[in-house]
Amino acid sequence: MCRWIAYSGTPIFLSRVLFDTQHSLIDQSLHSRLGVETTNGDGFGIGWYVPDLDTPAVLRDTGPAWSDRNLHDVAHHVRSGMFFAHIRATTGTAVQQTNCHPFRKDRWLWMHNGAISEYGLLRRDLALAVDPALYAEIEGSTDSELMFYLALTFGLDDDPPTAVARMAGLVEETGRRHGVRNPLQMTVAVADGVRLWVFRYSSERASRSLFVSAEVDALRALHPDVSFLQQVAEDTRLVVSEPLGDLPGAWKEVPESSYGVIQPGLDVFEAFQPR
């Protein structure tokens, strides 16, 4: 499995959450507390949005995040108001750059923690459901990228929650047709540069961990001495596979079988059901 972070809010240096926090993503790559694997060293990736550009930038590589000098340099020199970061622990597909998250298509970024069970058995049927106009753009061999292109096929551009629900429904239907009892395990983040959608779902209703940061104004009241909280806007949010530190009141678990929309103004969390 994997660990990931999605950030939306006041532009900050990526290093602020990748390197500088108590239990940063780099620390999690070596010492994950809540993941299936303690070490996540099968590649990494970051994706970030830049004002006035239509597509996000992406940096991905196959080595472990903790020793990559390029990642360290970029993270300490790039500032963004929306970015993804992902460390990979493969569930069976090759360790190669095209299999590292996040995946990008036009303005969209996508990353995933989890797996499609018996993926080798289901892969052909699922791939045939991808829009032929999109299929040639799939570069890697992961279930995660195929899930992304299925969501694009099912209307991600117009209605992300419905598109992801239809993708999940197809995976479950296909899995059960092949005798796979619990086909899908996922926490997913997908963004278009303005809004961020996050999903927590599994066929067995025992999904991998996912947390969202508490409202900034509430945290300021609890921790007036934390300088970072004074520097960011009230709509700043982090969604993480596991908390970045032990600050009391800082993290709320995303409910099982739910999705959230992180956006300017009011965040929304709703029940999630495959279709």
Automatic annotation (TrEMBL):
PROSITE patterns assigned to the protein according to its UniProt record, in alphabetical order: GATASE_TYPE_2 (PS51278)
A Pfam family assignment: GATase_4
Gene Ontology MF, one: transferase activity
Residues covered by the Glutamine amidotransferase type-2 domain: 2-275
InterPro entries the UniProt entry points to: EgtC-like, Gamma-glu_amide_hydrolase, GATase_2_dom, Ntn_hydrolases_N
Keyword match Transferase: yes
Keywords: Glutamine amidotransferase, Transferase
Protein name according to UniProt: Class II glutamine amidotransferase
Species this protein is from: Streptomyces longwoodensis
Lineage of producing organism: Bacteria, Bacillati, Actinomycetota, Actinomycetes, Kitasatosporales
